[in-house]
Amino acid sequence: MITPKTAFMVPYRISKPYSLRSFLLICLIIGIFLHIRSYLFQVISSEAAYISNTVKASHPIEKLILQNHRKHQNFLNRQSKTPEEAIKAYRKRYQRDPPPGFSKWVRYALAQNSTVIDDYDMIEERISPFRSISSFDLNRRIKAWQESADAFETVKIRDGKFVDCGEQFRNSIEDIVDQLPDMDLLLNWLDEPRIVGYDHLRDSNKVTMEDFASKDAWEILSGKCHFSSQKKMKRDTTTKVKYVEDPKEALDICSHPEAWNQHGFFNSPSNFRATRNVIPFFSTTSMSTMADLLTPGLDYVDWHYIGDAKTVDNINYTDKKPQMYWKGWSTGSWFKETSWKRNHRVRFIEKFRNHSMFNIGFSKYVQCDGYCEKLEEVVGLVPIDPPTTGFEYKFAMDLDGNGYSGRYYRLLLSNCLVFKQTMFEQWHDDRLVPWVHYIPVSLGMEELESVLDYFANDEKGLRYGEQIAMGGKEWAKKSLRPIDMTIYTYRLLLEYAALFEGGAERRLD
Ligand SMILES: *[C@@H]1O[C@H](CO)[C@@H](O)[C@H](O)[C@H]1NC(C)=O
Ligand SMILES: *[C@@H]1O[C@H](CO)[C@@H](O)[C@H](O)[C@H]1NC(C)=O
Ligand SMILES: *[C@@H]1O[C@H](CO)[C@@H](O)[C@H](O)[C@H]1NC(C)=O
């Protein structure tokens, strides 16, 4: 790509007959030309402004966009191109050899054009606490779970074949099951996390399940945190609008003592059956303080969630109304007199439903027996729209329900700019970049109005909004494919299997 800088770096020779005056004049003309050109360049070519590192960010949001764009470029450029490179990168990153079967995995991922080869820290973070537990003890924990828990299945793989396995999971790894070592794994049937897992010392022969449905779950979820000093630090710095810079930090329960008051899962989950035991257990979602191993949410493959030919977005971003759209059901908690105001969906709608830039509301009340009428009175009821109505708006909000939101990929694949608020960790967290593929929203939402104003009214913000909307769509098409979930799960299962044989010491294949 030719930037104004490189375009004018052709050797410029001044031959003798020119006087100093004409030389200076030429310099001046070139200078003016460059200046005008770079000005026009900034104003006209937003694509170039996006890419050029020389443009000075004039708005804190622009700064975040440019910073994260560079980060994402580095991410793309550093991915390994061969198994040898990937092994080297793995050793460098984790100071140990990769698990057996890794080279084959790399070849498979490369053959499928996986955009991500090296960056699977999500897997590492979740697997590593289990490395300190012996194979013998892990097996005992799995048995203990099987004997006393519910809403799960045990997937067994023997000689490269499934012995026991539900259809969804089977479909997702059917292609590669013959590459996997023998293993047994516990798969969650619920779309909530289950393993609070702080108790490494707890008797591993027995699993104790606790039911937090419609109870306060904050205490158990934040039990690992030391809040007092952080709370003080926070109070000192909250005068300016604070945009979400690091989504991982935003998901961190221990960094957000105020969150207990802001999310339905913390104060009255509709369903939450969890254990403090440390169990190697695969769920589609988890929280920062929890210990579930993360598999992709396979419902994202279902057309109900990603849409079909009838729900393709044909509206150009520039033609969409500059408003935020969200309609949905009142999920996210079990509603009670004492806690309904602390539900994240209610808070969002209450806060913005009368705002001219928002077209949002509940279209149906659920999980509120004996209390739905009162809720409707306070928060309002909107008609149910067809699934494509949201495409008429530039800004699509996506927020948690009882678990993670199933509409996320459908929104990313549209031409809308996706705003994402969540407290649930998912398999894709490493690969979706804030301010490049989507706009992160804090649980408090104090910054939301200012962010919308930037993308709706700022001259550069209008163009950046389109770039992020379209960039997110392109990236989702390349990196959130069903095959990407297979590639991720394949690698996860190699790491998981290696836990059982002292993976750290094993030789490379
Ligand atoms: C990978 O990309 C190459 C080059 O664009 C293409 O020819 C090939 O069909 C792709 N393979 C898969 C499995 O998508
Ligand atoms: C949307 O419209 C703009 C302006 O008319 C145009 O430059 C752009 O290419 C269009 N984008 C798509 C995806 O059609
Ligand atoms: C929003 O508008 C409704 C209906 O006009 C009104 O009853 C409600 O009090 C308003 N809510 C807020 C937060 O202003």
TrEMBL record:
Transmembrane segments: 20-40
Keyword Transmembrane: yes
Alphabetized UniProt keyword annotations: Membrane, Transmembrane, Transmembrane helix
One Pfam family from the record: Glyco_transf_90
Glycosyl transferase CAP10 domain mapped to chain residues: 240-501
SMART domains linked to this entry: CAP10
Domain of life: Eukaryota
Statement: the UniProt record of this protein carries the keyword Cytoplasm: no
Record's protein name: Glycosyl transferase CAP10 domain-containing protein
Source lineage: Eukaryota, Fungi, Dikarya, Ascomycota, Pezizomycotina
